[in-house]
Amino acid sequence: GNSVTQMEGPVTLSEEAFLTINCTYTATGYPSLFWYVQYPGEGLQLLLKATKADDKGSNKGFEATYRKETTSFHLEKGSVQVSDSAVYFCALSGSDSNYQLIWGAGTKLIIKP
Amino acid sequence: DAGITQSPRYKITETGRQVTLMCHQTWSHSYMFWYRQDLGHGLRLIYYSAAADITDKGEVPDGYVVSRSKTENFPLTLESATRSQTSVYFCASSESWVAGSYNEQFFGPGTRLTVL
User: Fold this and answer.
1) CB contact under 8 A, A32 and B102
2) In Å, how far are B3, B9, B25, B26, B75 from B29, measured between CA atoms?
């Protein structure tokens, strides 16, 4: 079946550091891939998406590229800020998902000033 | 206010009691979802609804009941609460759903439920 695996957290970085959060997936066909972000005390919100191989999603300085050959969708940001502290979820929507988004376990990111 | 709201935001109850969590959206989205969020499990789908009066089970439906008599409301009821149902519950909605395509889900702020 479909699945998403994220790197375990928490990830702790200093402000202005480079960020990578790894996400790999298992799915049949060509799923759509998403990153959602959850700020403290809030619900999840879509950060970026990619719907086909080699697509690059980007938003708020974050980027992720849909890599079919490595079944990955790693999240990157060149210079993180304290306000980026949150939990980040990778998810996929497969052709056989039957209304479900398949979620990774989430990665907590802590940015220190 | 436009958007998706949940109530209550926090709830403490006792084992065996019935609890209803409310979800309301103002967008007239067809699809609505209930998730629970637990450490180490990410989000798990409890129930979803494709339209008023159409609901179906997700990954972890046992112990929960839903209804959807109106498009904008999707209440979740724990018929007899258990400690294992202590969790954060999120409601979400989506305008449409096409398998394999982009289907953004919009989330409410969550309800933190504690069952003693």
Assistant:
1) yes
2) 10, 22, 8, 8, 15
Rg (CA), chain B: 13
**Facing residue for B45 by CB, picked from A44, A96, A100:** A100
CB-closest option in A44, A51, A89 to B102: A51
Contact (CB, 8 A) for A62 and B65: no
pLDDT at residue B62 is higher than 80: yes
**Measured between CB atoms, which of B44, B48, B101 is closest to A99?**
B48
Q: What average pLDDT score do residues B76-92 get?
A: 96
Q: Nearest residue on chain A to B109, judged by CA atoms?
A: A43
Distance from C-alpha of A72 to C-alpha of A18, rounded to nearest angstrom? 19
Indicate the Cα dihedral angle B8, B115, B47, A88, nearest 10°: 80
Residue A95 has pLDDT above 80, yes or no: no
d(CA B46, CA A37): 21
Contacts of A103 in chain B (CB under 8 A): 42-44
Distance CA A4, CA A23 (A): 7
pLDDT (0 to 100) of residue A51: 86
Q: What does the pLDDT look like over A27-83, one tens digit per residue?
A: 887 888 999 999 988 889 999 999 889 999 999 999 999 999 999 999 999 999 999
Q: Decide if B82 contacts B32 (C-beta within 8 A).
A: no
